[in-house]
Amino acid sequence: MSFPRTLGELRRSPFTEQRLGTRRVKDELRENLMTRLREGGPIFPGIVGYDDTVVPQIVNAILSRHNFILLGLRGQAKSRILRALTTLLDPQMPYIAGCEIHDNPYAPICRRCRELISKDAESTPIAWLTPDYRYVEKLATPDVTIADLIGDIDPIKAARGGHELSSEFTVHYGLLPRANRGIFAINELPDLAGKIQVGLFNIMQEGDVQIKGYPIRLPLDVAIVFSANPEDYTARGKIITPLKDRIGSEIRTHYPATVEEGIEITAQEAWINRTANSHNENGGGAPRLHVPKYINEIIERIAFAARDDKKIDKRSGVSQRLPISAIENVVSNAERRALTHREKLVVPRVSDIYAALPAITGKLELEYEGEMKGADHVSRELIRTAVAKSFDTYLHTNNMNQVVQWFDLGGEIQLSDNAGAQEVLDGLTQIQGLMEKLGKLNVGPKDSAEMQVSAAEFVLEGLHAHKKIGRNEERVFSAGEKPVKQQEHVYEPEEPGFGRKRGFN
């Protein structure tokens, strides 16, 4: 489709003055959202776990033509949601070619465009913007100035053009005017200095901005959205009350409510499908990858356990980036092992999760008790907790007596994350009753050695997590420490006439 290139052609196209002349960007968002609601389907594709909570509130804010703010801890898809708003903009938007603030051809607000239309009339050149170019995002930092956001007078423009400093032609526009007829997003709003937040008052209430005190007022057409961590109100800064009062809707985000939602998000975001981009030295494809479901569950449960752990700062939160980074590191460790042993199938094991500690420890903000124990110790505890919970969804310790007995009778086995699958499998088959239990994990004797080893190690790690068997730092599994049976204390009466009594502690 060819788009009009002059104002005259634009008037004769479907983009008439009646359609675009007074239509503002919030009306555009509202109309396109209404169309999407009628058609059905996801409002924001790729946003998981918010269908019944966050998304309806965003829909209400857009239908109300509100500026809104997303409040939530780190790693809750706030920035992604803001960027997804561009999907509610028109595919193409006309503006006067060369205009820094993308002026509406039917209602120009800058002096340059008004004079250009007065001079060229119907031959005024027209250009077009796609939705991505109508989204302007700024990360709030303490050094942001009013000139960055609103604009300033540029003496060089004045000198080169021979203009007076009070002339509109000397203005250097900031990010907000350049977002005219689009969406302007500010991330981490509390980090913006209070005196700079004041600069947003006019555009949010009266719809215009004034630059550097000169008599130049621009009635901008822009939808303003924000994101913030609620803890930032007291940590690094705060949102000043008059600005909060001008924000139409305050919407709270949250972490995934279920492990299944977390797994879906992690699978969507993590880079684990590497075979398409990798080739070995012989020109063939990279080893195939199979990630067992219980591995995905363990990794996701680590984040869930961390969010409930008293040793971890809840005000900071545990980002969804933890399981994303962890699964990538887990796959990499399994990939390294497969390449070393020339295996054709990459199957992660629980030992690979322990090898991925560098992807976990940096995501945790520890409380005092956690600092005393150390990030590695806390992370290992979280993995053990996650393994125990995942184990319980597939197996039960009461049905593992034969395996536990084998260790109680002196059996030992070392499972190194660097050992090849066939070598480990030869040792695992010696454990009485172990391989028969793998059916609960949908793994049988006809499956590859890599899959059998991964499943068997999961069973042993689950028993260790439930303290049925022991394991040392060298990953040697052995008999666990049995609880000492408390002896019954017998007290002899000191005075005559008292009978012997048992069971007092």
| Uncertain stretches of 5 or more adjacent residues | 484-505
Radius of gyration: 32 Å
The N- to C-terminal Cα distance equals 90 Å
| Mean model confidence by pLDDT | 88
Number of helices: 22
| Fraction of helical residues | 25-40%
By secondary-structure content and strand pairing, the structural class works out as alpha/beta
Order of the strands making up the biggest sheet:
4-7-10-1-11
Largest sheet: 5 strands, parallel
Anisotropy-based shape: elongated
CATH class of the largest domain: Alpha Beta
Strand content: 5-15%
Give the count of structural domains.
Answer: 2
- Give me the CATH architecture of the largest domain, please: 3-Layer(aba) Sandwich
CATH-defined topology of the largest domain? Rossmann fold
Task: Let me know the CATH homologous superfamily of the largest domain.
Answer: P-loop containing nucleotide triphosphate hydrolases
| DSSP E strands, number | 18
Would you write up a description of this structure?
The model is unreliable at 484-505 (pLDDT under 50). The chain has 2 domains: 7-252, 3-Layer(aba) Sandwich (Rossmann fold), CATH 3.40.50.300; 259-275 and 285-479, no CATH class. It starts with 6 loop residues before the first helix and ends with a strand. β8 and β9 form a beta hairpin. It is elongated. It has helices at 7-11, 17-20, 25-39, 54-63, 78-84, 111-120, 146-149, 155-161, 175-178, 194-197, 201-205, 241-246, 259-269, 293-308, 321-340, 350-355, 358-361, 368-373, 375-394, 401-408, 421-428, 449-465, and strands spanning 68-71, 93-96, 126-129, 135-139, 151-153, 171-173, 182-187, 209-210, 217-218, 222-228, 249-252, 288-289, 345-346, 413-414, 469-471, 476-479, 490-491, 501-502. The chain is built from 22 helices and 18 strands. The strands form 7 sheets. The protein has a 5-stranded parallel beta sheet with strand order 4-7-10-1-11. A 3-stranded antiparallel beta sheet has the order 14-16-15. 39% of the residues lie in helices and 12% in strands. The protein has 505 residues and is an alpha/beta fold.
